[in-house]
Amino acid sequence: MRRSERIVRLTKTLLEQPHRLLSLTEMAEKLESAKSSLSEDLAIIRDVLLKEGSGSLETQAGAAGGVKYVPGMPKQQSADFLMEMSRLLTDPDRILPGGYLYISDVLGRPDVLDRAGKIFADLFSASAVQYVLTVETKGIPLAISTARYLHVPTVVVRRDHRVTEGSAVSINYVSGSKRIQTMSLSRRSLPEQSRVLIVDDFMKAGGTAKAMIDMMKEFRADVVGVGVFMATSEPAEKMLKDYVSLLTLAEVDEVSKEIRVVPSNITK
Amino acid sequence: MRRSERIVRLTKTLLEQPHRLLSLTEMAEKLESAKSSLSEDLAIIRDVLLKEGSGSLETQAGAAGGVKYVPGMPKQQSADFLMEMSRLLTDPDRILPGGYLYISDVLGRPDVLDRAGKIFADLFSASAVQYVLTVETKGIPLAISTARYLHVPTVVVRRDHRVTEGSAVSINYVSGSKRIQTMSLSRRSLPEQSRVLIVDDFMKAGGTAKAMIDMMKEFRADVVGVGVFMATSEPAEKMLKDYVSLLTLAEVDEVSKEIRVVPSNITK
User: Fold this and answer.
1) Residue A24: which domain range?
2) Which one of A211, B57, B107, B260 has the minimum C-beta count within 10 Å?
């Protein structure tokens, strides 16, 4: 096989399977190439990723060894993306009755999900995440996108406790709208003692995220982080301290039609 | 820039943006290369995709011209994937009370979503899909994954008509459980006369899918197809004729613990 063709195949194989350890021996066989030439190709790919700041290749030595593509997001690209989002989301037409902000369309766009998911995957790439957890409905797309880049399953907490998937854990909590709500998760959907990353679209006081953290105690899980697309600046005192939000909603004024969205300074 | 490095970058750029027309001029500038060498590189990438059966590169000539990666799924890989799913889903432990089958965990796995989404994107790649439509909750992950490969937004119909995102269209329908249910979609989430692909996880009589099709009439949309992960063999007469299901659930017997899942013969 020609080197150029081999490089296309290698790049494709790696990019399509982020965070998955791929066996060098298997790849060498599939590409009908010597491991030594493979190593040279991988060095070129690693080089490009490093130069771009768009991730890295991690190599594991030994018989069971292999190589893993760890996706990353170049800092400038993250900053540009969040700036673009801030501008987009300050359109006065987005103000909903009650001072809410319409963001579902944005969180349905593949390019937005891809970039936001990659940022979260990058931020938590060293946390050995085993599951991404979210609660229905609006957080699901971003959770799926994040989980894709981390190569872990997504688990969706339901708001409807009538859902029958065997025995379930249900908890009551108070959400941003001050109503008492229920969320539930079937036992079988998450093994005990898993390492879990919580992802959601929006956070106000943090009641929903806090409820997910509480629920995780019932599963003896380790919550390694909480990531939300957007958090409000008020109340400043949230029900949880440790979370990352990509954007801060500083103001929505229904009367003056003023919206202020501040991009976060994302650092690992 | 060395050719091998250029090929890595090109492959990466294309794979990360399926179904997006990328300008050759911009790429040539970014890679500091002549368009002619770029064309040679693209020919190599196209060749690999063709050989693997994993998609194609479509070129558009002219000043506004460019190149687009159209992802595809090799036939054998589709067949293997569906066979693997059939085996996995016939585990007697998956039988839920009422003769339902537990599949949420599978539809939360990134590798499953990736392959199923790619199959749908492949099947409908020539349908000029503008939006993927689904209804909460379990269909969302697959819809997101399909939409990623088609590079179009996902729109989620809500089951809760209290959702306030401006004026909405609500319709009542009878679901598989024979209950009368409501689904609603805000006007602003989907422009009129869009070309829509409906994606869902499961279909029994087709009541939910039929309701989405009816709702699309209210948006004067063109439903170009319906794709579900799994459909039951009974009732054989569904409420809609035109749909693609990846798997057929032929039997779930709560007493004998027998499950039969038949992979579909996917052809364009």
Assistant:
1) 3-71
2) B260
